[in-house]
Write a structure and sequence with these properties.
This protein is α/β, with parallel strands linked by helices. The chain is built from 11 helices and 12 strands. It folds into 2 domains: about 190 residues, no CATH class; about 180 residues, no CATH class. Strands 1-2-3-7-4-8-9-10-12-11 form a 10-stranded mixed beta sheet. This is 4-O-methyl-glucuronoyl methylesterase-like domain-containing protein.
C-alpha cells in the first residue's frame, strides 16, 4: 500500500478486488442491498493528507491544520456539533462495595448529573480488580456503553435497576419499555466481567439510553431536554452518546483508583460508531475500540456495501445530524469518509473488529478504513497497521498502532473479541 500523500487519493477497485473474503462472509442479509464485490461502485476516497486548498501534507507539523479541516467537515456534515462540558456537571457515589465478583473486585456506582438541578443523569457501573485497588495502583479501564442497562451486563443483584426508557424485548426482560428483574444479567454473555478483572483491567459501563433514549422524538428527551433543539448541523444521537462518554471521562479523571491516562473507549454496533466519534473528539481516550460498527462507523461509506447511508438515515433519522441526509444514495458527494474518522484519532491506538457473517456491516470496508488511515499514523511516527493491505485470516488479529480482526460468527460481542482487546491493551499500555 503506498504511503505518500498523493497516493492515498486513488481508485480503490483494484485493491478491493485483491482483498478476497471467505464465502461465508456472503451470508444472507436484508434484500435489496449489495453484497457482491463486483458491484461495489468505483470510488475515490478524499485524501486525509491533502489540504482543502490542494496542498500536500508531508510533515507532522502540518497535520493539526489538516486535522481541523477534517474535523469541521465531520461536525458539519455527519455527526453534528455538541455543546461543551456543562457548568452544572457533578457526581455522586450512590453505592459501593469492596466484595464483588466472588471477592475479586470492588464495585462502585456513580451518578453523573448533567445539570445543577439534577434533572438528567446517567449511572456509571465500575468494577475494579480488588488487588490493585488495595495496593493503591490506579487501574487501566475499559469505558463502555451498553444497550439494556447496567444491570443487564451481570446478574449482580446490587446493580441499580435502570428506570430509563429502553427498547422492549422479551428476551432481555424489558416490558413496556422498562426493565424488570428478569433483565438482570440478560446480556452477560457479552460482558466477561470476571475475565476482565482477572486480566488486571477495570470496566466502567453506562446505559446509553440514560444519555439519550434511542428513538426519534425530535430531540426533546434525555440530555437534549437541557438544550435548544439542534440545528441541521447539531448533535445527533451518536454525537450525544459520545458526549456522554466524555462526561464519564470527566468523572474518571477525579477517581484516584482509575488510571485516567489508560482508558479505552469501547462500543458495539451503533455504539461502535459512537466509540469512534468519542475517540476522535476527545483526546483523553488512550485506545478506541470499534466492534462491528459498519456504516457511519468504521466501514467506508463510498463502498455502499450492506447498510448504506440512505438506509441508516431512513431507519434511524436521529443518529446523525440532518445535513447527513444530503448524502443518501450520494455517498461520493460527501466531503469525508470513514478512514478519515479513524485518522482523526491518530496517533492514538485504534482497534477495529469485524465478524465473518456480518456482511451488513461490511467487514472489508471496515478493514479498508484502517488501511487508508495508516498513512496519517505513519506520518505521525507510528507503525500504522504495519504495512498490511490484505485482510488477515479469520481469527488472526493484526496488532499494531491500528489493530484489526475478523472473527467467526455474527453481529455480537464474543469472548474472542474481548480477549483480543485485552491483548491489544497489554501491548499498547505495557502494564
Amino acid at each position: 500500500m503506498p504511503t505518500t500523500a498523493k497516493s492515498t487519493t486513488l481508485q480503490i477497485a483494484t485493491l478491493c478486488l485483491a482483498l478476497t473474503l471467505p464465502t461465508a462472509m456472503l451470508s444472507a442479509q436484508p434484500a435489496g442491498y449489495n453484497y457482491d464485490e463486483a458491484k461495489v461502485p468505483a470510488y475515490t476516497l478524499p485524501d486525509p493528507l491533502v489540504m482543502a486548498d490542494g496542498t500536500p501534507v508531508t510533515s507532522a507539523d502540518q497535520w493539526p491544520k489538516r486535522r481541523a479541516e477534517i474535523m469541521d467537515l465531520f461536525l458539519q456534515e455527519v455527526y453534528g456539533k455538541a455543546p461543551g462540558k456543562p457548568e452544572g456537571l457533578h457526581f455522586k457515589v450512590i453505592e459501593q462495595s469492596d466484595d464483588a465478583i466472588n471477592g475479586k473486585a470492588t464495585r462502585k456506582q456513580v451518578r453523573v448529573f448533567f445539570d445543577a438541578d439534577e434533572t438528567v443523569a446517567m449511572d456509571i457501573l465500575i468494577y475494579l480488580p480488588k488487588k490493585l485497588v488495595d495496593a493503591k495502583q490506579p487501574v487501566p479501564t475499559f469505558l463502555t456503553l451498553n444497550f439494556f442497562g447496567n444491570h443487564s451486563i451481570s446478574d449482580d443483584p446490587a446493580i441499580v435497576l435502570s428506570e430509563s426508557w429502553m427498547r422492549s424485548s422479551k428476551e432481555k426482560g424489558v416490558v413496556d419499555n422498562r426493565a424488570t428483574e428478569a433483565s438482570r444479567g440478560a446480556s452477560a454473555s457479552r460482558w466477561p466481567v470476571e475475565s476482565i478483572i482477572d486480566r488486571g483491567y477495570g470496566l466502567a459501563a453506562i446505559y446509553y439510553g440514560d444519555i439519550d433514549p434511542d428513538f426519534d422524538d425530535g430531540f426533546k428527551n434525555g440530555v437534549h431536554a437541557l438544550y435548544d433543539p439542534p440545528a441541521k448541523d447539531g448533535w445527533g444521537s451518536i454525537a450525544t452518546w459520545a458526549w456522554g462518554l466524555s462526561r464519564a471521562m470527566d468523572y474518571l479523571e477525579t477517581d484516584s483508583e482509575i488510571d485516567a491516562k489508560r482508558v479505552a473507549v469501547f462500543g458495539h454496533s451503533r455504539l461502535g460508531k459512537t466509540s469512534l466519534w468519542a475517540g476522535a473528539t476527545d483526546p483523553r481516550f488512550s485506545i478506541t475500540i470499534s466492534n462491528d460498527s459498519g456504516c457511519g462507523g468504521a466501514a467506508l461509506s463510498r463502498r455502499a456495501f450492506g447498510e448504506t447511508v440512505a438506509r441508516i438515515n431512513t431507519s434511524f433519522p436521529h443518529w446523525f445530524c440532518d445535513n447527513y441526509t444530503k448524502y443518501n444514495d450520494n455517498e461520493g458527494a460527501c466531503p469525508v469518509d470513514q478512514h478519515q474518522l479513524v485518522a482523526l484519532i491518530a496517533p492514538r491506538s485504534v482497534y477495529i473488529a469485524s465478524a465473518e457473517e456480518d456482511t451488513w456491516a461490511d467487514p472489508r470496508g471496515e478493514f479498508l478504513s484502517a488501511v487508508h488511515a495508516a498513512p496519517v499514523y505513519q506520518l505521525l511516527g507510528t507503525d500504522g497497521i504495519g504495512g498490511e493491505t490484505e485482510m488477515p485470516p479469520i481469527n488472526k488479529p493484526i496488532m499494531h498502532t491500528l489493530g484489526y480482526h475478523v472473527r467467526t460468527g455474527k453481529h455480537t460481542v464474543t469472548d474472542f473479541d474481548w480477549n483480543s482487546y485485552m491483548d491489544f491493551a497489554d501491548q499498547r499500555w505495557v502494564k
